[in-house]
């Protein structure tokens, strides 16, 4: 038995690896760190800084932001005042007995829009769609149907067949960038 074998047996040294294996592992670590860094940078460049306070709007078929919100698009800071009666962006009809997440986004002009995710059975786990380019995520509206269909912008969020849940996202409350949002499920 060699000295190395004795040290290995006692757990004082690790098994030998080839330089190529070590370099491949280091490269994989660098790629993981780089991806995490890019998520943080993307969130700072295109993110929401605080809660918009999403809630059902005063008028039928609308939602609102109850808080002023600061956000960035391409690294430029903007402010959007609290706004009532925002219409949801037209989207394909959501079937009965389904759950769907509608991502609420804002652009550099302060225009708030929604993006429909993929419908799933009401008891299943829904995931939000990926953030649109050059927009920041304010949050999402989860719509669960029971006893009727839902059409964004046409069906009232307060309808008896709709259970709506509002989730606010922001860089300092929860990640507001695409990659992190896509990994959240409800």
What does this structure look like?
This protein has 186 residues and is α+β, with helices and mostly antiparallel strands. The protein has a single domain, classed as Tail fiber receptor-binding protein, CATH 2.80.20. It is 21% helix and 31% strand. The protein is built from 3 helices and 11 strands; from the N terminus they run ααβββββββββββα. Strands 7, 8, 9, 10 and 11 form a 5-stranded antiparallel β-sheet that branches. The longest helix is centred in the N-terminal third of the chain and has 27 residues. The chain is elongated and about 80 Å long. The C terminus is likely disordered.
Task: Output the keywords.
three-stranded antiparallel sheet; alpha+beta; five-stranded antiparallel sheet; 186 residues; Tail fiber receptor-binding protein; disordered C terminus
Write the layout of secondary structure elements.
Elements lengths: L2 H7 L9 H27 L2 E2 L4 E3 L5 E4 L3 E5 L2 E5 L2 E5 L10 E9 L5 E5 L3 E2 L14 E10 L16 E7 L9 H5 L4
Antiparallel strand pairs: 1-4, 2-3, 3-6, 4-5, 7-8, 7-9, 7-10, 10-11
Number of helices: 3
Give the topology string: H per helix, E per strand.
HHEEEEEEEEEEEH
What's the number of extended β-strand segments? 11
Strand content: 25-35%
């Amino acid at each position: 038995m060699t000295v190395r074998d004795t040290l290995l047996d006692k757990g004082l040294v690790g098994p030998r690896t080839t330089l190529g294996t070590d370099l491949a592992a280091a490269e994989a670590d660098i790629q993981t760190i780089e991806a995490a860094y890019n998520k943080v940078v993307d969130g700072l460049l295109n993110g929401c800084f605080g809660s918009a306070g999403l809630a059902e709007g005063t008028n039928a078929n609308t939602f609102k932001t109850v808080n002023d919100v600061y956000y960035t698009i391409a690294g430029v800071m903007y402010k959007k005042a609290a706004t009532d009666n925002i219409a949801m962006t037209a989207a394909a009809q959501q079937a009965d007995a389904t759950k769907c997440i509608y991502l609420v986004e804002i652009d550099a002009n302060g225009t708030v829009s929604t993006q429909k995710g993929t419908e799933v059975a009401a008891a299943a786990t829904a995931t939000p769609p990926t953030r649109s380019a050059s927009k920041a995520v304010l949050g999402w509206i989860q719509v669960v149907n029971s006893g009727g269909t839902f059409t964004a912008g046409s069906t009232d969020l307060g309808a008896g067949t709709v259970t709506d849940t509002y989730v606010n996202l922001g860089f300092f409350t929860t990640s507001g960038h695409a990659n992190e949002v896509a990994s959240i499920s409800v």
